[in-house]
Amino acid sequence: MNMRVLALLVCAVLCIGATPRHSHHPARQPLTAEVIEQAQFGQGQKDNTALIVKAEVLLDRSGFSPGVIDGRDGDNYRKALAAFQRQSGLE
Questions:
Q1: Is residue 80 part of a domain?
Q2: Are 47 and 29 in contact (CB under 8 A)?
Q3: Tally of domains within the chain
Q4: Residue 3 in this model has a pLDDT that exceeds 90
Q5: Which residue range(s) make up the domain with 76?
């Protein structure tokens, strides 16, 4: 499965649990395959969901399962990221 197809599937799953219209939270940018593909570290964005989805997919493809690919900075994501960093010799 290529990255674009996987990103589209992730978008579909995330859209199912999207914030309701009457929420008190401001609307955020819709997650599309393009938004996920273009997400980069250090862009100063307030919402890092697309960047985390991208990282989760790449971690999973590298054999470091972050659990559910949901765009959330949770325990499983952090553990997978830490394992990748240790194995790669990164701080």
A1: yes
A2: yes
A3: 1
A4: no
A5: 3-15+29-88
